[in-house]
Amino acid sequence: MTKKPIKNSPWIHELCISLINGANTSQRLDFNRFRYLGVPKTQDIQQCALRPERSKDYAMKMFLAITTREDAGQSTKVNIFSSARNHFQFCDNHNPRLLPLTAESFLKELQHNTARQRLGEIKDSTETRKRGDLKTFFEWMGVSTKPFFPTKNLSRISQQEPTRGYSQTELRKLLPLLRSIFKQLYHQFILDPQMHLSAKSITPTMTFCWQGKCYPVATGVNKIFYVAAYLLSYYTWGNSTVLYNLKRPQSGSHSFSETWYQMPAFKRRAFKTISVEIGDNSQVHIPKYAMQFFDQLLKASKEVDQRPDGLLLPNFRFRIKTIQPMSACLLADFNNKWLGRYFPMMDDYGKRLTPVPRRFRATGSHLTIANKGPIEAALLLDNTPNVVAKNYSSGNQHLNNQMNRDTSWTLEQQVRDKSSIEAAKQKVRDMQKVDVLAYEAYLRKSAPPLRNANGSYCKEQNGEKSELFTARAKSHDLLNSSEKIACADLLGCWDCKHQVLVDSVVDIWCILSFRECLEESTYLHLDSKHFKNNFEHAISKIDARIKQFSIANVRKARRKLNDDGRHPLWLDAALIDF
Description:
This is Core-binding (CB) domain-containing protein. By secondary structure, this protein is mainly alpha-helical. It contains 21 helices and eleven strands. It is 50% helix and 8% strand. The strands form five sheets. A three-stranded antiparallel β-sheet has the order 9-10-11, with no helix packed on it.
């Protein structure tokens, strides 16, 4: 809290303004500081007898130049203010002192930042950002940098580090914990929202149990949305700053054929509005747990921020009972003070493992690049292919090392034994005592399950049955040597361990249509015994699987079957020809 200034203090209230910075939090910009050598803190100006070195008009000129820009967002203005502060501090502390906003001071500061970058004190990206912000500050102050701006960069790009995605091992550690935190705290909050919102921030009102141990939780309301921010970044691959400012969607559809939750958001740096959607994350289409998560998130969000255009991820300030947007600073505090303290995890390298939105985003991009290429990844991430190639295509370094090792060993065995690739792979598997090599495991994980005509999915479409179908087709000269047929045993699916079911109304509708088609095919058989031999076992298995779906979705699917008829794939029983 700012203390009351002493009498006759030259501090001027009109030169102080608060803006929202890039971390989505309020930051005070005090232009009084530029009147003094070294740009001291506001508190020092108000409480100490400091003598101004520059006039009030000088500070007012800077205030107007930065705060009245209509072509820049608040976070950009905060960045330029920080650049101005650094520039004045550099000039005042330089020996001999430099005059701010001159060609000499500009070039000297660039050289200083370049030297720090080469020593490894700051990264390339930081040096580039500082150079750009300083140039913008000069131009906003009416000082053109064209006559003296260096024609080529003083520094080289030597520390480029693309965002590293999570490995499957790391995801198996993070996601169950995050989902469990959200689920447990949500169910406690929704029973009595007002009790949790009216409590003090230091009073535990919830309990979280994990691996046989229970932890008291204070400010559990906010922890629900902290975890939700991470899960949203995993499900949507959205930019963190975009997710923080999302408004609640007004309506949604759970139909598989429609976009079920879609939220417009403004992307500040690109200066355009994009659409954030809950999707399938390159796995099973719209997972049941993702649908439940988002429904619960909407309900919790409405309890905290009841405005019609309320924030999807609100942060409740317990002391003053107000709402503020989510921010990176809040998530960092959550990680450092609670999640990392009580649930420490290690990554593949033995380092601390924490959830980071941009790494979830990178994980999704790696899966898309592996399956559909960089163009599709660029569309989903709302970036250009060049940006995707530069920042989102490096994969996970630990998995990359494993794949490179397996590849080199396989090639070495092939050359040494003069054997085939498959034989060399098998020898490498035997050497490592593993069933699957790293790259093969990656392909299995990244490949989405194949959707079958009977309404279910298959996670092993190119397995043993596929090889059997392919061999049979080749024996009849129906395929060439390079072609393969995926498994198409629609009746055998219901006994197969590789079958995947999705609790979706449209998928259940397709399953019910398939079952009805089987029943209707009675007239195509010689007698009831003939029919039972063919389809009775499959129908009983289908009935058992249908019981695993939610009652509400099964009821909606039956209503759809009655109102709209069968799924287009199963309109006629004559289609049953096994």
